[in-house]
Here is the input.
Amino acid sequence: MDKLNDQARSNLIFCECKTNNSFKDHDITRMKELATEFPKATIVFSTMKSELSDSEKLLLSDMFGSVAILDKSMEIKHNLTS
Here is the structure.
């Protein structure tokens, strides 16, 4: 398979979705691999839970450096940095 061209790479969105389960190391690792392969892609973690656990916040900020947490209205609820 040919690599995607630069324009297509910038239009990609990869999303890890959960209902009431927590994000785990393997979820973060898989998305980090995609972010490395497709550096212009948007990486999204989505959950139906009302709040991320402290361990999830730490895991996300450790892996990605900075994380904006949006609520249902798309307002920034937290902005985490490692």
